[in-house]
Structure formats: structure tokens, C-alpha cells
Predict the structure of Quinolinate synthase.
Amino acid sequence: MSLPVVPIHDPVANPASGSDLAAADVASLEEEIRALAREKDAVILAHNYQLPEVQKIADHVGDSLQLAIIGKKVPQATIVFCGVHFMAESAKVLAPEKRVLLPNLSAGCSLADSITAESLEDWKARYPEHAVVTYVNSTAEVKALSDICCTSANAASVVRSLPQKKILFTPDKNLGKWVAAKVPEKEVVVYDGCCPVHDVLRAASVNRVKAAKPEAVVIAHPECRADVVEIADEVCSTTAMLTAVERHPQAHTFIVATEHGIVYQMKKRWPDREFIVADGCIGCRMHCPYMKMIDLVMVRDALVRGKHEVQVELDVAAGARRALERMIAVPRDA
């Protein structure tokens, strides 16, 4: 599946270009957004991969499920979700009484699009004795057909917690293979989907970066291919990457094998450390165009005009909510 070409106006990915707006205009826009959020009783949530200026304006920054749970708990009646469509859907599923806005309706996800409800139904018919574990990077329709969901942080725990010995894991094949290796007592059949941003990375590219920085700690997302995971010092979710830095107090340099947007949060929390994107080319291969489709103007417009409101059909939402809540109830060490 090809990714759309979108202009990059990301000071992390392309620091020389700066922003399309002058600094004074950005400050004014930030002030306007904050005032609008208070006026509209809205909370702004931003994924770790969003543009730095969007992360800066957000009330909360994190991974997709973490943000959806925060959206349910906070008192605001409106959620402005700066992420991609399936994330906004999850927020709506967990907080059906709230209005959820996605500033750019074109912000999709190649991984979520790699499986449909129809293909999952066909797959389930082929493996009737298997429990379906679905990664949260999926549509509400696919979640609704699943027994339970998982995140990259708790996938192994979720699979281990199930009474069934046979598992269908969807849709990310790399995460599924990583889970199968961690839970060898289960028979895990893996769907053939992937995140193109992570799947494009090869160990050869990481080793080339490592050769220039031999003392660096390699941190990889489990959506990466097995050859990358095998050479990583830490394999963890985006949120866990921040705590992974804490586990290496003597290290100064970290090679990060995930979408480059996470580097903004890492530099913010650890300004004295060096973070290098694993492909050696920030904004080249490890760049998700969908995650860079929301800017400050879109956030402002979402608040002003109430766009774009995300809706999930009640029966689909009920099924997706069941799968998500089952996952949330699983202890991490199950």
C-alpha cells in the first residue's frame, strides 16, 4: 500500500525550513487555541508522532490507547484528537457521551487499512478454534469482531492471559511474530499486515548508524522487522521508550527505531542526550505522512467549527468497547 505524499513542515524532520508561520504568529495561534479550548470545554490530545508544534499545544501527549483512556477520564466534554482516524474512533468508543473531533479527516493509517471486517470474518472462518487478538492500530469494525485488543506494550501479556492455546493475531505481522516468540506456549497465527514506516527499516541501516556511534543504545518498536528487533538493546512501545532512557543512565546516545516524531518528546525530557533516528536520515524512511497531516491551523479550525466529528455505530462501538475493556483488565504481568 503506497503512502500519500504530503509536504513536510516539521522542525524535527526539516529543521532548516522552520515553520510556515512567523514566531509571533505561532505564539498568537497557540494563545487562540488555548482560549478556544477553554471556551469550548475541550481537551487536546496529541500522539507522540505528531508535529512538534501540535505536541507543544496539547494538554496530553502519549500513545493511542493512553490518550483514549485519558479522554474518557478528563472532565471536558469535547476531545480534539491529534492523531489518526482509528485513534479518534477508540476515544469515541471509550467515551461515547463525548464529542470527538479529528482536525484532519484524511489522517488515516496504512496498518489499520491492511485488514477489513470482511477479511477478518473470512480469516475467523478458516480458524474457528482460534481466539482473535487485535492490535489497537485497527478500525472499530475490526475491533468489534475481535475477542480482545492489545497494545505493543501489553501484547504478550494479553496473549498469555487467554485460555485458548490457538491465537489469531492481527493485523501487524512483525508485532505478531515478536509476541509469538515471547509466548512460545501458544500457537500464534499472524495476519500479513504491517506498518510501512517500521517495516521498511533494515538491520543494515541500523548497523550503519551504530558503526558511527558504537556506544549508542538501540531502542526499537516491536512493529519493526525481526532483524532490527534482534539487534536492539530495548524493544518497547513509544511511551516505554521514554522510560527506557532512564534504564541507561550512563548512555549519552540513543538510536531510535520508530517514527521520528518521538524524538521531540525524548529531547524535551532528556536535553543532555543525543537521539538519532535509526535510518540515519530524519524524515526520510522513518516518516509517517498521516501523522504529520494535522497542524495548528487545523486544530484551531476544529475548535471553531466543530470539525471533524467522529462517529461510531452503536453496535460496532459496543463490540469494540468490549474488546478494549477486556484488554485494559489484563494485568501487565499476566
User: Anything to note?
Assistant: The domain at 23-108+290-305 is CATH 3.40.50.10800 (Rossmann fold). The CA atoms of residues 32 and 300 lie 8 Å apart.
